[in-house]
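Predict structure. Chain length: 717.
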Amino acid sequence: MSITMALGAAMSGLTTAQQGLDSVSRNISNVNTKGYTRKIFVQESQVLGGTGVGVRAKALTRNVDESLMRDIRREAAMAGDYSVQTSYYSRIQDSFGTPADNSSIAHRISDLASQFETLGLDVSDITQASNTVNSAADVADQLNRMSQTIQDLRLDADRSIESDVQSVNDLLGRIDTLNAEIVRNQNTFQDTGDLEDQRDQALTDLAGYMDFSYFKRDSGEVILLTTSGSSLLDKNPVTLSHMAVTKTDAGLTYEAGNFNGITANGVDITSQIKGGSIAGYVNMRDTTLAGMQAEIDQLASQMKDALNAAHNRGTPYPELAQTFNGTRTFIDPANQQITLGAGDVQLVLYNADGTQAAQSTLKTELGGSSGSVNDVVDALNSFFTDYNNGTPVTWASVDSDGHVNVAIPSTETVGFAMRDEDAVNAPADMKIAFDSNGDGLTDQTASGFSNFFGLNDFYVNDSANYLYDSNVVSKGWKASTTSAMEIGMTGSPSVATIAIGPQDTIQSIAAKINADPSLAAANITASVVNEGSGVRLRILQNDGKELNVAETTNAGVLSRIGVGPSVSGNSTDIKVRDDLFANPSLLSSGVLQRNADTGQYSLGSGDNSIANALAKVFDSTVKFGETGALAGGTQTFSQYAASILSQSSTAASRMEGQSTTQQTLLDSLTLKQGQTSGVNLDEELTQLIIYQQAYSAAARVITTSTQLFDILNNITT
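Prediction complete.
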């Protein structure tokens, strides 16, 4: 080798050593940089004409295990999902408590039962009556707060989805920019290692928000897809969009379009997102929290109905009951019909001493067993007019909201009471068949005359029945027969009739409702709500007007799937009746007693039959249908309340365990990735010494070559 070639080789060695020192310096300086991977410096012999002429550096290589990185992103998506759900379960636990907590709904229901039992010992104790009403109000307030908490969390989840979608857009834009820089550097033979590190970190961050699949093209760019195959990033990033709602309530669902979907260039991809924090928020908003709302709504509804049925059988005494405000809404009282079963309803006006002032029966005043709602009001007024010595009065009426009311003037010294009887005058709830659309067919059945109209309810709700639900049925349910459904609302008793065929499913019935122009004009829509292991048909009057859904044939399709006024939201505004809360002496304690010898009716101050019946409500088991995450079954109200709390507590514990396990797995994979791809200072310091020595050696060769050239120059001179 000539001195010139030796000098050239030494110069290449010096340059290569400098590049090696540079790679070591970059690695050491980025030892704590998130996402940075160790850059491996590779050099090779430089050959010219078959003769080695030195050394040259190849492109830096990234020490990355792509399979491990895919595992990390997959587990990061699951960890993001579990983390969100764990956080929300924790917030639910803080609000709901556990069955053992003294402030839990289960404990408050048990306390209410005890208050009724104590009241039964002395119904004349006004202090105990007040304690009982206050305890009932505490139960209602607790249900209200639980419902409000759920809806607040649903709203918070929806807003978090909006925030996370924006973060996803920012990351997609970042990855797209890095793609362009990597492709440009690769085409111009420049280093792409640090850019790829930044892109890998962006991909890992993105996995925390949503799951996705990806692949790398030969050009160096990364293509992103949803796990279902929809494009997220190809030549350009897709813009995701989600606008959070400003308010929500128990009846609003994503399936009904009440929550906006997550769209990618206008296409809804909500159902395609199965992992990441976004999936966690969607699951909490649409499944977990909605299921809990359904559970406490069923609890509130069943308890309200049971207490109201018992309370409507009785009357307060010695208080004179003169004002009755019905809670059932009638959208067409002139045509909506009731038919009374066997027995009769005793109508009694009683004096301050409990003795009978006037008496008749509903069938007598009605002139038969059936009539319209207006006919019933006229029958009551006929009875009141007879008491008033034939001078017409209108103490009974249907108000502008469609409620039947009774208001006896305070100048009168009598109270009004009713008693349902069977054919031999024994107390028994009157069976009532209700034709809600006036077509001559029974659409609903009820027990108890006063209970049907809600004249002496204990618990009330202020909202209208603007929502109708079916029971939870299997997703493959079919009608199996021909029928028809008539839908009406306040101001328009018959908006449209929907034909039902044997092959119709819940989904196709909902589609028919939504396709009807008359229903669309009336702002009535339908949706299929996923719940538990099945689905519900939900029909909604979006302006909050009273809705009526009736079957116009005897096929019984609607009754088989339980279509009726929804219990959704019952826990939101359940409360003790206002006048009862203000005046606990209006609490029903006993019932009208019949003297078999005289046939007259009276009230006794010591009668505790209704107080005991109200207490017994809490000892009796009730059949609860499949709702939310709870299977159907028979339980007491306190037991069902405890089941809600227990199920929530168990789910919270399970999710916390899964989240911890998932985070541990993710941390383990991340640690392994760091051991594989991260910077090891000991290794880098070793390399630093090697390149330092190589640099020194190359410099020594250059010095020696220079000295040789000097010698040659001196010889020639």
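Summary: The first strand starts at residue 39 and ends at 40.
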